[in-house]
Amino acid sequence: MTEISNQSFADVRFLTSVFDLKQLPPQGIPEIAFAGRSNVGKSSLLNCLVKRRNLVKTSAKPGKTQSLNFFLLDNSIYLVDLPGYGYARVSKKMQASWQNLITAYLETRENLKCVVVIVDLRHEVKTVDLQLVDWLRNCNKPYLLIYTKADKLSANQRSKNAAILDAGFGVSKSNRVLFSAKTGMGRDNLISALDSFIF
User: What is the pLDDT of residues 123-139, one digit of tens each?
Assistant: First the structure.
């Protein structure tokens, strides 16, 4: 069995950018996809997860990721960075193109073990996030909610905001992780949670 917690993180590398399903790497090893609104901290989370500063390029400009970006972890797990959604300044045509690519990937990829949905802990439930979670449920796709940027709130406020998000998404504490890429808070919990999805 392949588990993230058993990986040394010695060999973490960018593999390929996929703009069309025909470009997907061969199936055979587990994949974990990471989704979230633009500028929610997806790149920072991925860098924190694999303990690399600049493996995934972070940008102050939302909408920078325009493809499915595959990263190979110790030759045994794919981490897939999906394009951020909900960014108004990207053209409607490009938004539609991204959406079609993401949807087709999520629907058809047999070795996709989990979709990590990243949400900003500081804000209430956003419609686009809820739509994604509801769609994943309806398609019976395993998912995990990550409430990120937890370092920007006090412990008391973190608990209050998490409870509001839990209620909005209709999940329990076991279906989400509080996370901070800045402090590393929640990293071990994230790894344990992801391991539970990989068979």
Answer: 999 999 999 999 999 99
User: H or E stretch including 59?
Assistant: none
Q: Which CATH number fits the domain that encloses residue 174?
A: 3.40.50.300
Pairwise CA distance, residues 145 & 168, whole Å: 12
How far is Cα 69 from Cα 82, in angstroms, rounded to an integer? 7
Closest CA to 147 of 167, 173, 119, 174: 119
Count up the domains in the chain and report the number.
Answer: 1
**One-letter amino acid of 32:** I
Encoded tokens for 100: 């079609």
Distance between CA 151 and CA 148 in Å, rounded?
8
Which helix (DSSP H) or strand (DSSP E) does residue 72 occupy?
strand 68-73
Helical H segments across the chain, by residue range:
42-50, 92-108, 127-138, 155-169, 187-195
User: Over the stretch 145-188, which tens digit does the pLDDT of each residue have?
Assistant: 999 999 999 999 999 999 999 999 999 999 999 999 999 999 99
The fraction of the chain above a pLDDT of 90, given in percent, is: 70
- How far is Cα 99 from Cα 105, in angstroms, rounded to an integer? 10
pLDDT range class, residue 58, cuts 50, 70, 90: low
The pTM score is 0.90
Look up the domain containing 155 and give its range. 4-195
Q: Are 55 and 100 in contact (CB under 8 A)?
A: no
